[in-house]
Amino acid sequence: MSDTVPLWRLDGGGDEYDDAVKEKHGVLLYYKFTPPIADLDDLYSFYESNCSSLGLIGRVRISSQGVNVTVGGRMSSLEKHIAAVKENRLFDGTDFKLGACEEPMSEKVAEECGFTSLSIRIVKELVTLSSNPLFKAPAISNVGRHLSAVEFHSVIKNTGELLREDPIDSGKIVLLDARNLYETRIGKFETPNVETLDPGIRQYSDLPTWIDDHVEQLRGSSILMYCTGGIRCEMASSYIRSKGDGFEKVFQLYGGIQRYLEQFPDGGFFKGKNFVFDHRIAVGSSNGSTIGKCLLCGTLFDDYSSRCRCAFCRMLVLICNSCQKENAKYVCELCQRHEKGAESASVDAKSYSDRSTTCDLGHCSLGAVPQVDQSTGNLLRLGVGSSRKLRILCLHGFRQNASGFKGRSASLTKKLKSIAELVFIDAPHELPFIYQASSLQEPVDGELSSQRQDPPPSVICTKKYAWLVAKEFLGQKGGYWERSEVPFDPLQFQQQTEGFNESLTYLNTVFSEKGPFDGILGFSQGAAMGALICAKKGTCNVPAVDFRFAILCSGFGVNLAGSSKGSINIPSLHIFGNLVGKDRQIPAQASLDLASYFEEGSRMIIQHNSGHLIPTMSPSIDDLRTFLDRFV
């Protein structure tokens, strides 16, 4: 953990630094909600030019709402950046938080935090309050009242008395921590006079659900919110206030914990350390208190520099140096509480990967691995920074393979390359090759015969696979030629209903070895398989096969009799040809029926007129990108 000096406020006269301090490394954090920004490209160009010329690294997020910036570099360069930003009237009143620190001690930590390069991105939202693509974000103009660090401290100290002209009802005052569990483990506000509510969430996008579940507990209270630097409270306080009567008294700590510790260097009512999303990991007060505990032995410990993570959800966990073991798998508090089979906090790799359970479809061999970027809540591969792309697992259609699907999806891959990585795999059921009997009758011994046995073609074909097969084929091995006496049946997909358990077990291995994945994209039968997985996630304990969204193209339903309409609760996008497009393989009504099984508030539908394919032209591709932007 890097040593830090106090954060300096640069909103007016500022403080003087000597030359030695100016050449130290530092971290700068600021955000600004602004009136709608028309020219985002111009703002992007400014940040790209300014930050690159000053040698700054870190994250810059730009949207029509404003900016959210965390960058690092030489203190003198960061001060020049602040001066340049202040020249734009758009940033009047911005609270710049600048702290000097040592250079990153761990390359691994710096890489995870996105502090090895400069990442500038235009996003839809500065912070995503919900991963539901249809969630309507509250108006940022309806935020809670800002309290300075001194005012916030006074409210807690005097159990509610804020200002004479605007007293807070001390009988109903609560502190609400808007941060994630791995942050609150090592530091939080504590006082015997005021109740502190810790939602205990994995990621910020889980907060609205927690608020909805505790609405009666919050109703009528004076709610004092706090987070790291303030931006998460802006959205969360707006969401609480949007609930109307009984939720008017919402207050938030201006500048967050960082400004509070600056005002009260001894920590004040804040105990422990403030988790930060850069290579410093955490910033403490002068009292050096520790409230975090080792997950395994309970010893006081709050050092995340080892980057130990939960094997289920990949959330950071605290494992003291004595308890850390090579190749050990740890299970966080939330997974122990909610996940079946998570009986201990530490399990060895073999026993963990060999776990199995029984679902209503039969025996499924399972493992675990979803991984999460702790600064954004997005799934990612361990060691990749927050600027990484979404990873989407692509499931091909019946009698196809990964290579062919990848080739036919080349245009889609190109159109999404800036935000998504598409991963293609073969299905587990190998199919026989099919050839049609000859329609020509040739003379045999001087007579015409309709019983001629045509030999199979001599050409070498690429293997074909399926996710679901007909009952009579289950358990057989393909790769051979099979003669068909009947013409192609466009409704054959209705007979391919077996083999789900085998495919699920196979996908478990794929997720374990090649994952994690943010979402799945299924085409035709691949969409049917994807929908079935979404429907069974609630009844099958499949921690390895985990994802946040599903894109189902030209899909249809299989074995969904046990699910009711609107019961599948996962964000989904359904893409299929309309009646004009005339998908000759899958009728539009079959895809529409499949979409009806997904929760209405979480599903989106794109209909096109291009037949049995995934469209890559506007407006379809624009709508697809809009859907994906919610998960970036």
Question: Total number of helical segments?
Answer: 18
Low-pLDDT sequence parts: 1-18, 339-344, 347-387, 440-452
Distance between the termini: 28 Å
Mean pLDDT: 78
Structural key phrases:
single chain, 632 residues, alpha/beta, 18 helices, 24% helix
Folded structure, characterized:
- The protein is α/β, with parallel strands linked by helices.
- It has a six-stranded mixed sheet, with helices on both faces. Strands 20-19-27-28-29-30 form a six-stranded parallel sheet, sandwiched between helices. A five-stranded parallel sheet has the order 7-12-11-8-10.
- The N terminus is likely disordered.
- The longest helix is centred in the N-terminal third of the chain and has 15 residues.
- It has 18 helices and 30 strands.
Question: What topology does this entry show?
Answer:
Elements: E1 8-9, H1 19-22, E2 25-33, H2 40-54, E3 57-63, E4 66-74, H3 75-86, E5 97-101, H4 107-112, E6 118-122, E7 145-147, H5 149-157, E8 173-177, H6 181-184, E9 187-189, E10 195-197, H7 207-213, H8 215-218, E11 222-226, H9 231-241, E12 250-253, H10 256-263, E13 270-275, E14 282-284, E15 328-330, H11 333-338, E16 346-348, H12 349-353, E17 356-359, E18 362-365, E19 390-395, H13 402-408, H14 410-415, E20 420-425, E21 429-431, E22 433-436, E23 443-444, E24 447-448, E25 464-466, E26 481-484, H15 500-514, E27 519-523, H16 525-536, E28 549-553, E29 572-577, H17 588-595, E30 603-608, H18 620-629
Parallel strand pairs: 3-6, 7-12, 8-10, 8-11, 11-12, 19-20, 19-27, 22-26, 27-28, 28-29, 29-30
Antiparallel strand pairs: 1-5, 2-4, 2-5, 3-4, 9-13, 13-14, 15-16, 17-18, 21-25, 23-24
